[in-house]
Every structure is written in C-alpha cells, then in structure tokens.
Amino acid sequence: MTPAPFAPPALEPAAHRGPRLGRGLVGLVAVVGLAFVLDVALGPVRIPLPTVARLLLGHGAAADAATDFIVHQIRLPKALTALVAGSGLAVSGLQMQTLFRNPLAGPSALGLTAGAGLGVALVMLAGGNVASALAVRQLGLAGSWTLVLAATAGAALVMALVLALAARVRDNVVLLIVGLMVASVTGAIVSLWQYFSAPEQIQEYLLWTFGALGGVTGPHLAVLATVVGAGIGLALASAKPLNALLLGENYARSLGLPVRRSRTLIILSTSLLAGSVTAFCGPIGFVGLAVPHLTRALLGTADHRILLPGACLLGAALVLGCDCLAQLPGSQLTLPINVVTSLLGAPVVLWVVLRRPRRSAA
Amino acid sequence: MPQLSLPPGRAGGAFFSFLPRPRGWVLGLLLASHLAGAGQPRPAQRGAVAPPSRPATITGRTTVRYAKGFTISYAGNYKVITVQSPFEPKAPAVRYLLVPRGAARPAGYPGAQVIETPLRSLVGLSSMHVALADFLEADDLVVGVGSFKYVSAARVRQRIAAGQVYEVGQGKELNNELLVAHHPDLVMTTGWPGEGADYFQTLRAAGIPVLINSEWVETTPLARAEWVKVLAALLNKEDLVNQKFDAVAREYQRLAALAQRAPRRPGVVVGLPFKDVWYVPDADSYMAQFLRDAGATYHWDHTKAPSGSLALSFEAVAPVALTAEYWLQTGSLTTKAALLAQDARYAAFAPVKAGRVFNNNRRTNAQGSNDYWESGAMHPDLILADLLRILHPKLLPTGPLSYYQALR
Questions:
Q1: Structure-model confidence comparison of residues B129 and B15, the more confident one
Q2: Which residues on chain A are in Cβ contact (under 8 Å) with B345?
Q3: Nearest to B22 among A138, A143, A336 (CB)
Q4: C-alpha to C-alpha distance for B280 and B270, rounded to whole angstroms
Q5: Which end of chain B has the least Cβ crowding within 10 Å, N or C?
Q6: Three-class SS state of B8
C-alpha cells in the first residue's frame, strides 16, 4: 500500500471525548433549528417574524392568503429541501472521502454529479422520445421516481467505474484525474445530446443545472426525503466499516470486515444520496466536499459514529445558511443555490489543500 | 418556462454561444428561442411572383417611424443602413452601404460593409429572418437557415423539403465552410450591434456581408416588426413594405385605441416559472407594451431591467399570480393537467381556478416550433387582436384566435 496523503486523525476511545462530542452535536442541532427558522423568515416578500413563527407553529391562518401561501407553499418546502439536500450531500461526501482515503473526494470532484446529470439528461432529453419527455414534464410521482432512479444509476455507474479504476491505480492524484476525466466524458455525452435535442428540452435541462431548492414540493419532497433518509440510514449502518476503512482495506480485512460487501453498501448509499439530491435540486457544488472537513475540524474526531450525524447536521445548516444568503436582502431576486455554495465552498477546499503542503511531496 | 418577452431572434442567435454561461436572462432567451416556430400554412398572401430583377435605381423610399435600432437613408443611387443599439447609444453604429449590383462603392463611409442590391440570396440564422422574407413575399430568397427545426413559413418549408435550403447552425456552431462554399449575398444574424465585427471575421474575409438584425432590442411590437424595412431596402421593395407594414400598423393602432375604451383593465401575469425563478417582461419589453395596448393591468409595468426581463423569485410573483385574472404564455404547455403536473401549487392561482390560462402556442408545428415567434413578429396586429379577444371579450366580434389558445 502506498502512503496516502490523507492521514486521518487517530481514532480515540469515544469514552474520553464523549461529553464534548455530545455537546457539539446538540449545539449543531440548535444551529440547524435556527438556520431553518431564519430561512423560512427571510425572503423577497417581507413577512414579520411573529407571523412566520405563528404560521410555522400552526396557530391560526395568516391575515391574507398570499402570506399563507408563501410560508406554507414556498418557504417551508424550500427549507425542508435545503435540510434534506444538505445532509444528504454532506454524508455522501464524507463516505467518499473515507472510501477513497482522499481529502478531495466529493460528489462533484469524482464525477458523481456528472453521472447523475447524465441520468437526468437521459430522462429529460432522451433523444426527443415523446413518452419519456412527457414523463419528465409531467413530473408526477412516477416521473420523479424515474428521475431519481436514472440519476442514482448514473451516479452509481460513475462511482463503480472510478472505484474499479481505483483498485488498479493506487495514486490518489491519478484517481482524482480519472474522476475528472469521467466527468468530462459524461459532460461531453450530455453536450452531444443537447446538440441534437429540442431547445425546449435543453432549456429544462439547463435550468436544472443551475441548481434550485425551490419547486420540490408535496410528493416530490416526500420522494426525496424517503430516498435521502434511506441513504443516511445505510450510511449510519456502515459507520463501523467506515472507521475500519480509514486504516486501509488490508487492515479492515484483517479485522474480519467483509470489505467487498461494506464497499457495495457504501457505494449504494453514496449514489442514492448524491443521485437523488442532484436529481431534484440540480448540482449543488462543494457541500459534499467541504462539509466533511468542517465537521472533522469542528468535532475533532475521525469516528464515523459521531462524524456521520455531525456532517448530516452541519450540511443541513450550511445549505440552509446558503439559502438565506441566496435571497439577496431587499431584492426580489434569488441567486441559484449552486452559486452561493460554490462561493463559500471553494475557499474551504483551498484551505484543505494549502494546510497540507508537505504531504504533496510524499 | 420563463418569460416570453424576449424575441426569438436574440435567442436563436445567442443560444449556443451563451450555452455555457449561467446567466439568468439567457434562460429567457432560450425559452423564446424554442418557441420560435412555424405552424399552419397561413392564408395565401402572395400575389404574382415578383420579377426576379429590378432596375438598379431606387424605385421607392421608406421611412422608419417606430424602430430605434436602425435608420435608412437614401443618397444618389445607394442607400445607407445604420444599426445602432438603443441600449448603448455611445457604442459605434454599424453601417451598411446598399449599392446597386455592379456599381462602384461610394466614396467615404470607412469601415462600412457593402451589400449589393437587390439581394438574390439570404441566409437567415433566426426564424424571425425567415418571417421577414415571407412578409415581403420573397421566400425564394431564403437559401439557408440556422436550423430547419425553427422554420414555420409554409413556402420555406417546401423549399427545405425540396432540398433548396441548407442548414448552417448558429453561434459557435456556425458552419463557416458551408457558407463560404455557397457564398450567399447576405447572412443575417442576431446579436448586439458591433458584436459581429470580430465574430464573423471569417465570413467577412470571404467577402460575405453579415448584417446584424437586433430587432429584439426594440421596446414595442411595431418597432420590432418595422425591421422588415431593412430587408425591404435590400430587395428594393420599399413600395411593397410601405403598403403592407402600414396596413399592419394602422390595424394595430385601431385595436389599441379600441382597448383603451374598455371599462376595466384586468390583471395579467405572464410566463412560466421554473422552480425558484420566474422571468417576467420588464417595463421596456415589447410584451409589456402589448399588455398596455391591450388594456391590461400588469404589475411590473414600471420596473425596468437592462435585459428586457426581470428574473424574480417565485415568491415575488406568486402573490400577483394568486389574484390575477389572466395568466398568459405558459411555456410550451397546452393542458391544465400538464401545468399542474409541473407544480401542483399553481392550482391556487386564480386564473387556473377560473380557467383563464392562455398560451401563445396555437401555431406550433410538428417540429415543435412555434410560429408566434416567426410570423407573429411580423403581425403584432393579429397578436393584439388575440389579446383583446381574451381580455375584453366584448370589444371585438367573436372570432378564432390566431396565435393564442386556452389551456384545456
């Protein structure tokens, strides 16, 4: 095994740090709650905080129908989507970084988002096929399942491909380059489809690529929450294998871990999370990459039993916070969420790269 | 999908070149572009075929009354067309010298492109350019188009079927080799005045004149349609354009005057949101002018944006949509079921409850191309009549709509 540039902090007995970590997680829950309320309270249309609080708690209706509609039909679903998308992306990023033992692994860096995009494009563009085009335009429940399935399959395909190459290529930098190339090839395929598709379908796809938390309501939100819930459940069940994998596959095997099966479960979970979130919200950059690092720094542990819920909460808080920022104060305009997460996430990645300059020579 | 205030011309031309840039207004353009299109054959409006060539002297003159983006002046045996951006009055105007075929280039006018008249062949990159030729009964002029998909004019479709038209693509995908090989008399493109100077260097070096048609920057429907006078000047068809365009303008003014007598001005919301964003026409867009002239109340009638459309959050438009009387131009949708399938929340909007959702895609052909963006650009009178019939059913005698249809 060649030395990996990604050396995780040693696992410490949980008993030592239990109370502090517990407090950390409780604090994160409070932050998520605050960000959630703030996200619902802020928006282009000014609604007083007491009114928002009253509506959120379900005490009586708003003075006018518009306020009621905005809080219940627009802001609440959007905040819930932010919550679900943030946790899903963060957990998927954390699993990838551990699985690949690479600090720069993340849904977009390794081409997972591109793979999901390929799936979405397959459904949306589908060479002008009337039946499939209709299924998307009328994103009924069946349509949204199709979309999730296609995006997840696309993400899983790329993930499996990268992983298969990872088994042969031990160099992490090469692996990242492989991921980028896979993303590049899928991007080219999508471009080719776009070129031969009706502009209307392209437009739909193009709008999707900007990323948006809004518009995921009712049954769509239920589908997204179910799939992300399942993905996070799988991830939590894989906490122990993930801990073992931190120390290398051979070591994990020597501990009696069924590496192959654990790997499959982790891939499935990661693809479900990245795929479903990407299917509904479009590519949301840097959350999956940056949040695991922030979580490790904040909680000071490498134990996935703590890290996974931590990343889940921090991811939710971060995306909720970004969504608050996306609603420019005093403006009737909302920035695409992808823009805000990327603006905030890129410096984090820079920080990750710059704080380990020595290791690049290794 | 987003709003429809931006003309297909811009969309068509800018689409591929802007593809990678996530700029909000591009969406509006995209939208507009794919709605560009054809439709049912229009009532025959062509008389005898015009004589193939005309005397090389100027037979008629036309004056520009509505459009701000171009001027036509006459001097000796040649004409000068100046294309200017109303948005950027300081940007250098682009000049074209229209010289009778075989005549010497007039002195002066450094940097101006020379186009020999009358034009014998035209490549139009946007469907709007096809509409210009069709309006001037010069369909046979069209030898190339940006994309076959977006052609509606029946005569040009026939020419395409007969293999008499080539497809050159748009933006970065513009097939320069094909154009150089065919060497048309003129390539008409969309874009900002001045932008083409670098962009079309290859064609200019090959001696193919490129004319930028920026009709999409005009702020009124009549001003947009008036760009047909540019092509008329190139064809020496000033007499015809004066007669036909004046008829359209007169009818438009008559209808607009009629609408101002309506007892009330119903509230209207325009466009189709996509998730968080709802593009609506701004105060300076020709769509806002249509709504003003049709006697509608439009919430953003005084809000200006540089791009011609406002990118608003869904939440900012929803309160207006909740109480509006009419909802116009809902993307490519034709049924209420499809509308609600896209977002169930639309069911709360008053126009949806009352069945007053109208889309401008009645004339969408088998390729999915919408003639509203093609012949509609030349027939603001018909579009205004549609709007009057929708918004003020008692003002005009009942009759079929031309471009609009109610969502079923």
A1: B129
A2: 69, 73-74, 217
A3: A336
A4: 6
A5: C
A6: helix
